[in-house]
């Protein structure tokens, strides 16, 4: 077997190993999504239906696991049920895994950037149970946050078991996010893109995550759909964009969505701040948030739980404008109270309900004013779903694909692109995911990589003004004579030259420590006895990354710079501190320019 064949075989083996990892993540995340979906269905049946007689509608792609009960609707039970759920969920989370509180996607983002992709093994299990209890007792939230943290937790767990590096653990964790979200929303492409895009505020992607997340997402999606059936989550009448004049109302919709998204973010984090200041045990806070949620639900029941059923009705223009507006603003409050108090749930699900409601309201208003231009108000529901979450999360690309896959409405890509782009541009200052960093440059996960990349573009010759000319000593100079020179200089390193002026060695002030306190040998010792001939040097054409690596490996502070064509011709010394200072100035200029 030749060298090329051996290399190809090695590459195939490595690719096969990673393919196995990503398929395994997809299988586990898909099974996790199935379990979570079953638990949510059972919880809705036994809590909301059996105990309160409340039976919220479902999107077209989902069906009841168990037949409805005959329990009459009871508003008073609906009022206290979210508080009871919050009490159990709060005890579970704050007793066993406090990091499982809130919306799980943000916790997964934080783990990616700041915790080397580490998520404790118990998190997926605690998150699954706590989220199920929160969401099926009337708490307002989405399934993507829990399943994102569940998938991420399994990915991180596998990476630890396989003894992978930090970088590989982050990739496995992100693949788990994509697999979980892509499967439970039946949007595998969007799941992969979301896992790569949601990490940053700028329109930046974690490129090394897309393929792994794509493989895992497809596997998880197939496993999930084998159990619950194929097809999109929502049904739509097959809307088509055919009138350019309709872009005007869509632009107006973008403005409304941005204002609503900013309100959503402000209220959400305002509630979180209030509950953090609340002087009661953390275990009790989700129950208080649940009670406030129940009070709103007492008057507006459709703002509880998931809310996908009423969004499905809005797509077919079956919901009145006042109801849509009450749904949007009521959902902002119930979501903030349910999750902001420490309950467990996601923010994507409520976002598509809020965005769809606002889109439906705007679409209906323009349909009344311009019936020949806006012929289908339901299309504004779908575009509103996409635009609102793009504004709230700074993820315009994956959101467009998300809503297209979830609603099977690819003919609305053009207005969705316009609205999502405008929403993103107008709302960059705000995000529902506070652990997002600005870009890859700002992520601790890539700090070393970017420093290395930048240093590789800079040559030693570019720092010619920082290459210091230093006092050299003759190889035959006695140590006694050197002691007369030493006090007059602040040098720490001393190059040694022979009689021909060639650079042959170097020593530091640390190297003379033994001799300087031994007076009786001062006349006997010469510089040749002290210097080291094993010299590490750099040249003007060498990049700063290589130079800094040499300094670090030998743990020295300066490196001799020699001529390109003559290693015995000393040009001066370059210091580690000057290289780092130059790097910091260079990065500062780049940021100022941006």
Query: Strand order of the main beta sheet, please?
Result: 1-2-3
Number of domains: 3
Mean pLDDT over the full residue set = 88
Number of helices: 22
Structure classification: mainly alpha
SSE succession: HHHHHHHHHHHHHHHHHEHEEHHHEEH
- The span between the termini is 52 Å
Which overall shape is indicated by the principal axes computed on the Cα atoms? elongated
CATH class of the largest domain: Mainly Alpha
How much β-strand is present in the residues? under 5%
Radius of gyration: 32 Å
Gross CATH architecture of the largest domain: Orthogonal Bundle
* Record field, number of beta strands: 5
Biggest beta sheet summary = 3 strands, mixed
- In which range does the helix fraction lie? 55-70%
Structure notes:
This protein has three domains: 3-232, Clc chloride channel; 244-440, Clc chloride channel, CATH 1.10.3080.10; 457-593, Roll (CBS-domain). Helix 11 (308-315) packs parallel to helix 13 and helix 12 (321-340) runs antiparallel to helix 13 (348-369). 60% of the residues lie in helices and 4% in strands. The mean pLDDT is 88. It is mostly helical. The protein contains 22 helices and five strands.
Salient structural properties:
single chain; mainly alpha; Clc chloride channel; CBS-domain; 3 domains; three-stranded mixed beta sheet; two-stranded antiparallel sheet; 22 helices; elongated
């Amino acid at each position: 077997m030749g060298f090329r064949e051996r290399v190809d075989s090695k590459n195939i083996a490595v690719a096969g190993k990673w393919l196995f990892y990503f398929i395994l993540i997809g299988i586990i995340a898909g099974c996790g999504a199935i379990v979570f979906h079953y638990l949510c269905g059972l919880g809705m049946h036994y809590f909301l239906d059996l105990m309160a007689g409340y039976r919220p509608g479902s999107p077209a792609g989902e069906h009841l696991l168990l037949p409805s009960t005959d329990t009459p609707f009871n508003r008073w039970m609906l009022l206290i049920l979210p508080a009871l759920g919050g009490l159990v969920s709060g005890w579970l989370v704050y007793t066993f895994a406090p990091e499982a509180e809130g919306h799980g996607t943000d916790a997964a983002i934080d783990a990616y950037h700041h915790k080397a992709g580490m998520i404790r093994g118990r998190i997926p299990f605690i998150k699954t149970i706590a989220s199920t209890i929160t969401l099926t007792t009337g708490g307002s939230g989405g399934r993507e946050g829990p399943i994102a943290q569940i998938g991420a937790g399994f990915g991180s767990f596998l990476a630890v078991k396989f003894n992978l590096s930090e970088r590989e653990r982050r990739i496995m964790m992100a693949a788990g996010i994509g697999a979980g979200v892509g499967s439970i929303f039946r949007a595998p492409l969007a799941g992969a893109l979301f896992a790569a895009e949601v990490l940053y505020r700028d329109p930046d992607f974690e490129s090394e995550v897309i393929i792994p997340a794509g493989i895992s997402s497809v596997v998880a999606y197939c496993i999930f759909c084998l159990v619950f059936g194929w097809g999109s989550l929502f049904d739509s009448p097959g809307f088509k964009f055919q009138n350019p004049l309709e872009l005007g109302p869509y632009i107006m919709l973008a403005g409304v969505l941005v204002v609503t998204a900013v309100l959503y973010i402000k209220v959400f984090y305002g509630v979180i701040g209030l509950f953090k200041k609340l002087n009661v045990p953390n275990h009790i806070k989700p129950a208080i948030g649940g009670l406030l949620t129940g009070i709103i639900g007492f008057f507006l029941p459709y703002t509880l739980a998931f809310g996908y059923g009423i969004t499905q009705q809005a797509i077919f223009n079956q919901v009145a404008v006042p109801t849509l507006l009450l749904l949007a603003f009521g959902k902002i409050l119930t979501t903030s109270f349910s999750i902001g108090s420490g309950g467990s749930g996601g923010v994507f699900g409520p976002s598509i309900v809020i965005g769809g409601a606002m889109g439906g309201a705007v679409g209906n208003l323009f349909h009344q004013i311009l019936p020949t231009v806006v012929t289908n108000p339901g299309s504004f529901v779908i575009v509103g779903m996409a635009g609102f979450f793009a504004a709230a999360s700074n993820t315009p690309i994956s959101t467009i694909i998300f809503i297209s896959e979830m609603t099977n409405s690819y003919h609305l890509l053009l207005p969705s692109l316009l609205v999502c782009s405008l929403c993103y541009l107008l709302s960059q200052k705000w995000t529902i995911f506070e652990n997002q960093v600005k870009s890859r440059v700002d992520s601790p996960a890539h700090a070393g990589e970017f420093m290395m990349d930048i240093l590789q573009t800079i040559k030693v010759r570019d720092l010619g003004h920082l290459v210091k000319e230093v006092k050299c000593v003759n190889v035959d100079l006695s140590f006694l004579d050197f002691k007369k020179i030493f006090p007059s200089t602040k040098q720490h390193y001393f190059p040694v030259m022979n009689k021909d002026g060639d650079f042959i060695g170097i020593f530091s002030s640390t190297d003379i420590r033994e001799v300087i306190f031994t007076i009786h040998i001062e006349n006997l010792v010469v510089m040749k006895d002290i210097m080291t001939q094993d010299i590490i040097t750099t040249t003007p054409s060498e990049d700063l990354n290589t130079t800094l690596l040499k300094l670090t490996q030998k743990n020295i502070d300066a490196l001799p710079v020699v001529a390109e064509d003559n290693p015995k011709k000393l040009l001066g010394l370059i210091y580690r501190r000057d290289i780092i200072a130059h790097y910091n100035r260079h990065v500062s200029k780049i940021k100022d320019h941006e």
